[in-house]
Amino acid sequence: MLVALVDTLKQLRYQIAHLEDDTMQSEYPELATFIQQVGLIVAESKQELVFLYQFLYVYGRKSEATYNRFRNELERFYLWSWLVAEKSVFELKREDIEAYVDFMVEPDKSWAMTSVQWRYKDEQGIRRLNENWRPFMLKESIASQQTLAAMFTALNVFYKFAILEEKTFANFVPVVKKNSPYLVVQSQIKIPDTLSDIQWEYVFGVTRDKCEQQPDLERNLFTLACLKGLYLRISELSERPQWSPVMSHFWQDNDGFWFLRIMGKGNKLRDVTLSEDFVTYLKRYRLYRGLPALPRVDESDPLVHKIRGQGGMTVRQIRRLVQQSFDLAKKSLLDDGFTDDAEQLESATAHWLRHTGATHDAQTRPLKHLSEDLGHAKIATTDQIYIQTNIKERAKSGFKRKI
């Protein structure tokens, strides 16, 4: 039976303590039994699991999303190394890593499920394993380029860390990645997923129009304005263990310009500029909440409030607000005969709003200004994702060439 090696980020420190104190059986009986059985095949398995926990603690404590990505990738790598290769993860050679990549592309069906499953659940103080959990999701197609890239990144970071900690002296991942037959070198035109003008007009306009009958939709309207107008990631608008977005994070400089201080990726702070149009919707949202039109430096009210309960909203709750506005827009698009736009809106996500705002503003704003508001570490990233002028000029110059 396959057993999940790692629980949630919240439980990680308990798992570390249990392994070090040899008390795993008291809280994780299935995992304890599994480790004992694997130890008959790979003698170092317990020590290797301790190292995995330490790695996840170091790299995952800044962000739960980062923790989950590394956990998922390394957990199945560990399981494959122990159960399929029957080797320590620090004994694997280049050909073993290549074999694992082959397994990633086409995993054993017994290692996959058709739906996402929870790992462990509390049962009278014991963390009980979900026997339906599997390391992979069952898909008809082979692993995507994004999936493979995430796998190579996780393994590369892991082995670099292991070298620094003197657990191993070799990292075969870069050479395997360079020569992998599954990775496609990206040279084609890549355009980010965005809403069309008419889709955005309906998403924002329908939500705004319905606020009269449903005042609580003011919260949706403000969320849409933040994600599209300020190019925010949905995580940057949400409540997190190390950051709570509040109204006092809005601030005004001596020249009267407004900014919003944001905690972005890698716990990096940045100040996003506010447009006149956005300030209008900020005032509207605050008045709906019974607050003064503009924020003060001492306000602790959450940026996006809960209708019931205290504090800010989670990623999942904010995503639900966006989806509600998408659903309202889709119905109106269908009613008005825009069938194609309505169907395309089915696949849209909250992150499309960030891309939509940045793509639109890239036509008029200096690239450096846009890059800083987006929170990109390199201006080349903004250029690559959002600036399509060179591509259009290339298309124009080649349009009338003769055969």
Q: If you had to describe this structure to a student in words, what would you say it looks like?
A:
The protein has 403 residues and is mainly α. It is 51% helix and 6% strand. A 3-stranded antiparallel sheet has the order 5-6-7. A two-stranded parallel ribbon has the order 1-4. A hairpin with a 5-residue loop joins strand 6 and strand 7. It starts with 8 loop residues before the first helix and ends with a helix.
Q: Which helices and strands, and how do they pair?
A:
Elements: H1 9-21, H2 24-27, H3 29-39, H4 45-60, H5 64-83, H6 94-105, E1 112-113, E2 120-123, E3 126-129, E4 136-137, H7 145-164, H8 173-178, H9 197-210, H10 217-229, E5 250-252, E6 258-263, E7 269-273, H11 276-288, H12 315-335, H13 339-344, H14 351-361, H15 367-374, H16 379-386, H17 389-399
Parallel strand pairs: 1-4
Antiparallel strand pairs: 2-3, 5-6, 6-7
Helix pairs in contact: 1-4, 4-5, 5-7, 9-10, 9-12, 10-11, 10-12, 10-14, 15-16
